[in-house]
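Hey,

The postdoc asked me to send both predictions to you directly instead of through the lab channel. I've kept everything plain text so nothing gets mangled by the mail client. Protein one:
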Amino acid sequence: MNDIEALARQKRAELRRLQRELERLEALKNKRLKVTSPEIKDVARTIQSLAKDHMMETEEVLSLVREAIERYPLKGKRGGTLGRVPPKYRNLDNPAETWSGRGRKPRWVVAALEKGLTLDDLRIRD
């Protein structure tokens, strides 16, 4: 009798887990974009507007969009690459060494700060 009760408890727990998983999958399914989604409608209107403004067929614009998506894939969460940033700081002892102010401070910046200089002292003035 104890074995049957233990098996029943185990099956109930498994059923609850499966129900939670089903609810999660249904929520994910409902979250997906559809043809009637406002975002998709906006994209469609934009493509139609581009076609009209440039006196092209909608299919031609769609073809260009597909080609652009293949050529310039989105990267990371930000949706693109940041690219190079011009330097903001220059090493007073060696003007060839510069830093954009992003990422880790170079050793020469750390050394200058330890000497009592400030980042403003190292700033490149145009």
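Protein two:
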Amino acid sequence: MLGFGLSIEPQLWALVFVMVRIGATFIAAPVFGNVSVPVTVRVTLSGAIGFLVLAAHPIQPPAQIFATATVLAVAAEALVGLALGFVLQIAFAAPVIAAEIIGGSMGLGFASSVDPQNGQSSPALGQFFSIMLTLLFLSMDGHLVLVEMLVKSYDVMPPGAAWLGVDRLRGIAFFGGYAFLAGLLLALPVGFLLLCLNIVVGMISRAAPALNLFSVGLPASLAVGVVALAVGFPAMGDYMVVIIREGLEATQSLVLG
């Protein structure tokens, strides 16, 4: 008997309680939290992983449903799940920042469309980088690593003692600067060439004021940017792998300790 005479199977209540942390992670995490992933799929995955957690850990849910302790326990579980997904989402924001830098220098800043991954408008180049990062994340079994961290999180922070400390919350906030650093480093090869091109175009415009700068500079920036992307993308892909590893390691260290 739980709460006000509500007869609920204890195993079902334990499964629902476990699914709170898992579902919150899937809401905030990349790939799982995309708009293209139906809610039914997320709930089904949460339930399947919840069965694994119950089989590996003896979870004791709160005794009553309508109680202050239960509300606080559910909020703590949701906080841990959101932190697990949010830290990884910060790392996935780096390609979008890099696309803003490169696209602005190439003259593609106006080329934007609705991203089917998150349902928001983003640069076309940013969508390309995000898709590549997602494919690399799946090829590295990052989704399986995230599920493994979810299951192990019940060893580090069992239900009832899952509140994140101030140090961990501050570390998660400071990790937001990594997205800007990684985005800048990711855009550095192409951005440096475009910067050199802009310097050359500026010198030409000073030497020949009658020359139409827009008729020369914009096509040259676009052509040099496309060639630089084609040449430098293998190195950019290697750094995307580093971004994924850093994101997974930060998720484990900042949230799980």
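Summary for protein two, as requested: Residues 213-255 form the longest helix (43 residues).

Thanks,
C.
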